[in-house]
Amino acid sequence: MPQKSKGLYGIVGVILLVxxxxxxWLVFGNRAGNETDLTNDPPISGDVICEKVDESxxxxxxxxxKTALSILKECFGDGVVTTEYPGMGEFVTGIDGVEADDxxxxxxYINDEMSMEGASTYNTKSSESIKWHLDELNFE
Length: 140
Hints:
Layout (H helix, E strand, L loop, with lengths): L2 H26 L21 E5 L2 E5 L6 H9 L3 E6 L3 E7 L2 E2 L4 E7 L2 E2 L14 E8 L4
């Protein structure tokens, strides 16, 4: 094979690799780091939709930049009863007429996992499902 042909095949091969690589990038995009970092999403405007599943369960979708407690208050207004603990924030003791008694407490869950942060400080994301449930205290 003449020397000129080998050089031409090399150039064509490199161009082909670049075209295929660019095509793959266009199809699949640059997805690195975008799956979980939603902190820069703009807040969602519109009505807040809370669903009262039963007397002891409320669910709603998170809203970027709003706390779990502020969304709950948008849904139920004065129907949300809280107790303020200095240095710890507000704790929900009643929702829509259902008060926690000595053996229960209102817990909130993020994507079905109990939150380790208080509702008055936890900033939700639009990708999160928030659930409030009247849980039983268990000291065993």
